[in-house]
Peptidase
Amino acid sequence: MQNRTAYSGADGSARVDLDTQLTVELASVVSAARRRATRDGDRQVDTAHLLHGLLESDPAVRDAFDGGPRIARLLGYLVQRSIGYGLQWHGTVEDSGAVPAVTEGGVPGWSPAAAAALDGALDRAHARYATRAGCLDLLAALVDDPESRAVEVLRRASVDTALLAERLDGDGSGGSGQE
């Protein structure tokens, strides 16, 4: 089993391990999610931070949503999280129930659901024998957790998450920058 706690940012050598498992584009999304969480005053990176980074950074992710108006609506909800929509999340830990609540030994700086999504992206990439997880891998992993904040935002923006999951499962490419 490979060390996947690297995204905690706690250990420099572990971070190198994670960097070898992500495409350049996905590494950029992860960095953007960390910055956004810090800027918003959130204690942890959550799945909505990751979704926001994906939508802003990757054209293949945007293409998965069938058009500009839906993307604009999604980004609108995500931007509002610090000034309105999403304020109920401020200062709370995202635990969707998809994974057991972590009380000890969790990934510092990451919600349990966000850590599970990144693990899911890595698993999806490894299942197709890719050396690196891409942005579509992470999007598929986010959609796989029906109780995550990312899926809550998607549903609020009228995205059919079951259809999106089906489309992503049929794609299998992992996203732009795939190796």
In short: Residues 24-39 form the longest helix (16 residues).
